Amino acid sequence: MSTAPRPSRPPPPVPKPGHVKVVRAMYTYEAQHQDELSFEEGDTLYILEQKDKDWWKAKCGRNSGLIPSNYVEENTESIDYPLHDAAKRGNTDFLRECLSNRVSVNGLDKAGSTPLHWAAHGGHMECLEVLLAEPKVEINVQNKLGDTPLHAAAWKNHAAAVKVLLDKGARVDLRNKEDKLPVDLTKDPEVASLLRQAAGVQASRYKDDYGEEDAEDSD
């Protein structure tokens, strides 16, 4: 009796850019009706729905409502990577605001980096902890250079950032496009020690997980 072919395992999920459009108002807008949204020049607007071509649903601060779509196109400037910008600057308030407005925690910028890369690169611990607390955050994403957030933290010698990433499951065995492990990039003895210790733990865990199966295969 023939059996159906075993389906191949799906590839790991690829992080997708955030679906929320984020803009900064260049002018003040006064709502004309109760269901519209008022905002001031310089306010950050999160465009939540674009189902109607003429009126989009937006949020500003704690308020939400409709705004004319042509206003967004003509009187605002786009903030292309708001969560990355917040992580890069260590702006925790803006970072939390972006996340609460559904900006993707795993969005990729032009370099293929996630907000976690930038928080790790800057050693911004509060931003790192907020991002790592997100249920769907991807910790081991490699950007176009092959660097993970752990590579970024190690390269900048941020011991505290390295430790919190390791505690959350960051892998030490991923190599970048220059064939470098995170430990190869650091000049800080404490960071190097943390990474070597983690390498031993992860190698032991891998052996425990797969060693018995390998032994069976060799019989």
From TrEMBL:
Its main location: cytoplasm. SMART domains: ANK, SH3. InterPro entries: Ankyrin_rpt, Ankyrin_rpt-contain_sf, SH3-like_dom_sf, SH3_domain. PROSITE patterns: ANK_REP_REGION (PS50297), ANK_REPEAT (PS50088), SH3 (PS50002). It comes from the Eukaryota. GO terms for cellular component: cytoplasm. It is found in: Cytoplasm. Pfam families: Ank_2 (PF12796), SH3_1 (PF00018). Residues 18-77 form the SH3 domain. ANK repeats lie at residues 111-144, 145-177. One of its GO terms (biological process) is signal transduction. The keyword Kinase does not apply. SUPFAM superfamilies: Ankyrin repeat, SH3-domain. Keywords: ANK repeat, Cytoplasm, Repeat, SH3 domain. PANTHER family: OSTEOCLAST-STIMULATING FACTOR 1. Induces bone resorption, acting probably through a signaling cascade which results in the secretion of factor(s) enhancing osteoclast formation and activity. This is Osteoclast-stimulating factor 1. It comes from Littorina saxatilis.
